[in-house]
Amino acid sequence: MKTISLMSAKGGCSKTTTSINIAVGLSETGKVLLVDLDPQGNSSKRFFSNYLELDGICELLRKEKTYDECIHHTKFPNLDIIPSKRNLFVLKKEMLYASHGIQQLRLKNVLDPIRKDYDYIIIDNHPDIDLLISNALMCSDMVIIPVNPDADNIMFSDSIEGMNLTLTNIKEAIDEGEIAEMDFRILLTMTDRTRASQIFEDYLRSAYGDLVLKTDINYQSAPVKNKNRSGFVIEKDDTRIGRNYQSLVDEIRSLS
Ligand SMILES: Nc1ncnc2c1ncn2[C@@H]1O[C@H](COP(=O)(O)OP(=O)(O)OP(=O)(O)O)[C@@H](O)[C@H]1O
Ligand SMILES: [Mg+2]
């Protein structure tokens, strides 16, 4: 059983797109639980248009509802989801001021009893470094940090900074004894055939070596935005980005 977090302090680098597609891909051979830990609920809305009416991670963390009420089956036979919505912002604030218990361990305490029911748990995180991210780190075996060559920024400083903030946060959590160790990997996303994208990829692969996953995810907007697919590009093997995600799923399985 493995728990994988998609995490970066930089927004819009494909955390959600990657979370939902590897969750669907991994569910073809095993039971998968996707945890939406982003108060924006972006993963949740891909599965359920009525996600605002569903109980989910906030209710579980508050112990207000049962697992059966908060874990929802999806249209994919082996894939369940614990959805999220904006009340997670409120819970985050409550956690900051709580005077009881270890607040960093709340997600771990919720997930531990159900780990045995799944082969993989995938956690989609919001773009931040905060108490929710600490909660995700405390219960993850692996962190995948998606990094996209930001075409608007020739020095790629936003992309590198977002990745480095997350890497530093993981290293600090290890140094401070919060977590024992962490298998972290970098995933190149939204790559294209431009020279800038190639320079960025070459830099990352030479600077970070094997930490960079072999598979990169190309930029291909049409299938991601296709309303009928809701972002599940891996569902049919008929697009480049769908095949990229299939390769990524194979690579993740090979790391297990
Ligand atoms: N490989 C891709 N090719 C084209 N568009 C993509 C690709 N991956 C993601 N996108 C688009 O880029 C935007 C950001 O992607 P996504 O929501 O997955 O990022 P995120 O890191 O989860 O963002 P946030 O930080 O807000 O949670 C979305 O509009 C998504 O459809
Ligand atoms: Mg997201």
Describe this protein's structure.
- With 256 residues, the protein is an alpha/beta fold.
- The protein has a single domain, classed as Rossmann fold.
- It has helices at 15-26, 42-47, 57-61, 67-70, 87-97, 106-111, 131-138, 157-175, 195-208, 221-225, 240-255; strands at 2-6, 32-37, 72-73, 79-82, 120-125, 142-147, 183-188.
- Strands 3-4-2-5-1-6-7 form a seven-stranded mixed sheet, sandwiched between helices.
- α1 packs across α11.
- The protein binds adenosine-5'-triphosphate (ATP) and magnesium ion.
- Residues 11-17, 38, 42, 126-127, 189-190, 217, 219-221, 224, 241 line the site of adenosine-5'-triphosphate.
- Adenosine-5'-triphosphate binds next to α1 and α10.
Layout of secondary structure:
Blueprint: E1 2-6, H1 15-26, E2 32-37, H2 42-47, H3 57-61, H4 67-70, E3 72-73, E4 79-82, H5 87-97, H6 106-111, E5 120-125, H7 131-138, E6 142-147, H8 157-175, E7 183-188, H9 195-208, H10 221-225, H11 240-255
Parallel strand pairs: 1-5, 1-6, 2-4, 2-5, 6-7
Antiparallel strand pairs: 3-4
Bound molecules: adenosine-5'-triphosphate and magnesium ion.
Residues 11-17, 38, 42, 126-127, 189-190, 217, 219-221, 224, 241 line the site of adenosine-5'-triphosphate.
What's the number of extended β-strand segments? 7
| CATH domain topology | Rossmann fold
Note the gap between the termini. Answer: 9 Å
The dominant shape is: globular
Helix content class:
40-55%
**Rg over alpha carbons:** 17 Å
- CATH H-level superfamily title: P-loop containing nucleotide triphosphate hydrolases
pLDDT average, as an integer? Answer: 94
Give the spatial strand order of the biggest sheet: 3-4-2-5-1-6-7
Q: Which segments are poorly predicted (pLDDT under 50) over 5 or more consecutive residues?
A: none
N-to-C order of helices and strands: EHEHHHEEHHEHEHEHHH
Overall CATH architecture = 3-Layer(aba) Sandwich
Number of domains: 1
**SSE-based structural type:** alpha/beta
CATH class: Alpha Beta
